[in-house]
């Protein structure tokens, strides 16, 4: 089967400047409206499907995203592999602002989200294996692309997925650190699990955009986060293009 790669862009990557739009795909899903239309685009020789997770103009907060419609639409479009982009806060020492991390584990602290296709509303119930939530094959492919492109990455890490949209308290970050988390974001779940249920390979490219709450001398400001996004997302886009071309 030939591969069809999609990029699901998050905060800081709601659109893809510099890309050539090849085709807009109006998605169809039994699960309602996805965040945005799917776009077949080309960037630096890489062709892929792009979906803005938070909608165009970043209008949908993490807990209101229709993750099921997003993943189902990508499945309907024939997508076999998802490269998800996530902005995160750093927890462990080496996960400082500007670092690009490729997590291989996660802890799910979200609640109240529609998180499964197997919800007992018709059809069979399946209990998917989720021991290793990210595709190791895609993570290694991203590592190789980083090497080829001369892009620094942190190749491992555990991603804590929190409910948001607020950031954490300093005490919550201390607890997440005790739980063994290296970074914290709001969107990898239920997205990763739904992709597994849908039979789509899934890897996450995380850009650390701020130190976790209480880990630096100053409060977290959107201006500081935006400054990291402005430079970091260029690197993330280059990494993705190298990965898709390779
Ligand atoms: N916490 C949770 N999600 C985030 C953060 C954070 O500090 N930064 C970016 N997304």
From TrEMBL:
- GO annotation, biological process: L-methionine salvage from methylthioadenosine; purine ribonucleoside salvage
Q: Is Membrane among this UniProt entry's keywords?
A: no
Q: Site annotated as Important for substrate specificity: where?
A: 168, 222
The protein's matches in InterPro entries, at most eight in alphabetical order, are given as: MTAP (IPR010044), Nucleoside_phosphorylase_d (IPR000845), Nucleoside_phosphorylase_sf (IPR035994)
Amino-acid positions noted as binding phosphate in the UniProt annotation, renumbered to this chain? 11, 53-54, 187
- Which Gene3D superfamilies does this chain map to? Nucleoside phosphorylase domain (3.40.50.1580)
Q: Which reaction does it catalyse?
A: a purine D-ribonucleoside + phosphate = a purine nucleobase + alpha-D-ribose 1-phosphate
Which pathway is this protein assigned to?
A: Purine metabolism; purine nucleoside salvage
Q: What residue stretches are annotated with the Nucleoside phosphorylase domain?
A: 5-244
- Keyword Glycosyltransferase present in the record's keywords: the answer is yes
EC number(s) on file: 2.4.2.1
GO-annotated molecular function: S-methyl-5-thioadenosine phosphorylase activity
Q: What is this protein called?
A: Purine nucleoside phosphorylase
